[in-house]
Amino acid sequence: MWRSLRFLLLYVSFGIISLRAEGHLLWEDCVWIGMERNVHLKLEKTKTELFPILLKEKWKQYLPKLGVHYFGIFSRNKEQIDQEYRDVRLQIQQMIYDGGETEREKQKIEIKQLIQAEEKKLIREKVFKSISHFYLNANKRMFIDLIYQLRRERYLLEKEKRKTEVAAGIIASKEVTVVPFGEAEFESKRIQAKSQHLLANLELKQSMFLDPAESFLLEPGLMERIQIHPPKTSTIELDENHPLRKKSRLQLELVSLEEQSLENDWKPKFLLGGYVGRNGNAGFPLQNEIYGISIGVQANLGGSSVSSSSQNGIQSEGNGIQRIPGYGPQPVGPGENSFQSGSIGLFDEIGREKKRFDAKLNQEQAHLEKEQTDLILKNNTKSTEIKLFDSYQKYILYLECTKSAIVLLKKKRWEKGLQLISELEYLKWEEEVFLPFEMAIESYFSYLGLAMEMALYLGEDPFSNRYYHVKQEKSRSEFLLILQDWNLTHPIEKKQSSEPNSLKTNPSLWEESDEKR
């Protein structure tokens, strides 16, 4: 389950990992650096800051609206009595009932926030898969390059031997300048292995948003830290909380709320308000106290809008002004003053039926997208599972082929010791070992990449799942044992350290501290 994935968040609280930290980069480090530098994830993090603002704005609709209002009229015309009037009042208005629309709008924002969180998880998953594939490829190329470096020592020894034979007069000097085709072919493969190793490192840097010239060293011996398990034929159950599936469910909830809003738009909205203040005809300070209450009703009936308002006020002394919507200011005297108004707009919401149609269409589309998402995930999972079995079977096949070739090579090594075959003939027999050996390595890393994808589909930890487990300590892998068996005079321990490595704590890839499940 996605909740069981506990890795890749701890460093967020402590900042970006320094590339110049002690030691070489592990798988976890590469993923962390890439995620911290990924521009898409930074943009998504900025987007999350919008939803608390929108929710805060919706919550304000539950609060009363306060305001200070000033109104003044001055008249100084010829042949008329001068007039002066000022009115200052504190006004308040409160929504009493809105048919639950504010709550639905708040829920829509909360669901959109959850959808955006799932989209962010999908981006993290994509970034994780991309970096992990490039990381595995870089380790594969590093190991193959190491093999060619070790084998090259044998060819260099053969060259030194030929020079010694020339010095002893055993062979002619012109024979030294002739490069055997097998040796040239090996040198070509060695050069290619070196360039592929450099290109793999460059691709990994690019996926991590690193500069090509930036300091970069990978921790060797990945295969010594990974324990792989054979895949088992069993029913594959997709994780219900996979971000794609969860996003589809949330989109269904969102369109359902949209439809509820249309179904409930007939419910009236009740507003209650009031005011208190002073007015006067002789400048400041104002002489007369005023206060009053107002009631408003708004509704939508079958596309026709209905609105009604009523205001009742008290003027203590003197003359005042009552502002009636649609009629302007009207003079009032001391005592009680009120007005009522109402209006009906017949079929003034022309696009109402279009909104209903769009809501139903969106709901149907959300259902279809959910079904399509489930189908795509099932097909992708089945396709990955088939490739996974294929890679594992090829890995075992080529590994056994390599072991058989090693047994035959030992016989050829004995014949070489008796000078029954030459060194060059022996090196040709080594090709029979390393051709299947490279194929075994290719299949091994292909299996790891596919298993990592399957773990993500199933909601399992991509560092520890049913297909493989990344251990804290190193142990001798099958490939290491084969190289040691082959390279008796150059033990592989000198090339790679077998000291234990401490793995990073693995918090969740998908959850952040500010996200709620």
From TrEMBL:
Gene3D superfamilies: Outer membrane efflux proteins (OEP) (1.20.1600.10). The keyword Magnesium does not apply. PANTHER family: OUTER MEMBRANE PROTEIN TOLC. Keywords: Cell outer membrane, Membrane, Transmembrane, Transmembrane beta strand. The keyword Membrane applies. Residues 498-508 have a biased composition (Polar residues). Residues 493-517 are annotated as: Disordered. It is found in: Cell outer membrane. This is Channel protein TolC. InterPro entries: TolC-like. One of its GO terms (cellular component) is cell outer membrane. One of its GO terms (molecular function) is porin activity. It comes from Leptospira kemamanensis.
